[in-house]
Amino acid sequence: ISEGDKTAKEGLLLWAKTKVGEVSKGSVVVNNFHTSWQDGLAFNCLIQAYRPDLVQYQKLNPKSKVENLNHAFDLAEKHLGIPKLLDAADMV
Q1: Distance (Å, rounded) from C-alpha 67 to C-alpha 41?
Q2: 45: enclosing H helix or E strand
């Protein structure tokens, strides 16, 4: 991804849009850093982009927001070494 004259935030959003779009074949859309992440699907898609052995976002229920978020945060902490800094309940 070429960031050109984008800010770091814009570049990160472009990267997230691209990766999530690739994994979901366009069915999960990232437009911002707020509402696009609330159902947990985008987080799970990002994990699947790099570790497809850990998650298949297609099997997640978009209505199970807290469960999806906890699933992604738990996987990221356990398998990717990313500390859990967000709380699922605060995101929905």
Answers
A1: 10
A2: helix 41-50
Cα separation, 62 vs 64, whole angstroms: 5
Q: How confident is the model over 6-37, as pLDDT tens digits?
A: 899 999 999 999 999 999 999 999 999 999 99
> Nearest-CA neighbor of 69 among 40, 89, 33?
40
CB 30 within 8 Å of CB 21: yes
Contact 3, 28 (CB under 8 A): no
State the CB neighbour count (10 A cutoff) for residue 55.
Answer: 22
pTM of the model: 0.91
Token code pair at residue 48: 């699947």
Q: What is the DSSP letter of 27?
A: S
